[in-house]
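Quick question, first post here. What does this chain look like in 3D?
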Amino acid sequence: MILRTTLAASALFVLAGCNQQSSEELPELYEGEGSVPMEEAEAPAEPVPALSDADMVRVCKAAQAFSVGRDVNTVNGEKTGENMVRLSYTRDDGKSFRYDCRIDDGEVRTRMIDEAGPGSGPGQWSGRGSKTTFEMRENGIYVKELYFDGSSDEGLVEI
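> Answer (accepted):
Ran it through. Tokens below.
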């Protein structure tokens, strides 16, 4: 039963990522018994103030570290353009990863660099299968990931 449920969820995740629907059509994919309608999940509580360059780097590092289960101090970040941060880290097995990160209206979006192999360039921006938001706090950055099935994961990344 668990294997069947896992396979079904995996298939939905792949289909959601491959489907080229417009953002107006996406809420239909997320609605269902026990899930959170995307209209409710997308409405920010209040406008997000502009971030300084240093805060933008901190938010991107915190969101990526939270997403991949790493210590934030092992993720490197550098502002590379207007509203753009380049992230990088190396796993314990020696494999290196690079991402671009941007923040759009309180939502953190990333795209992997060379996802399809060396020299393949940036992949597509995240956001089709999950949504990552953040809140600046005194003791760190609170990150929340809302997944396509309505489940979520959240926590404080101390910086």
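The longest strand covers residues 96-104.
Confidence is low (pLDDT under 50) at residues 1-41.
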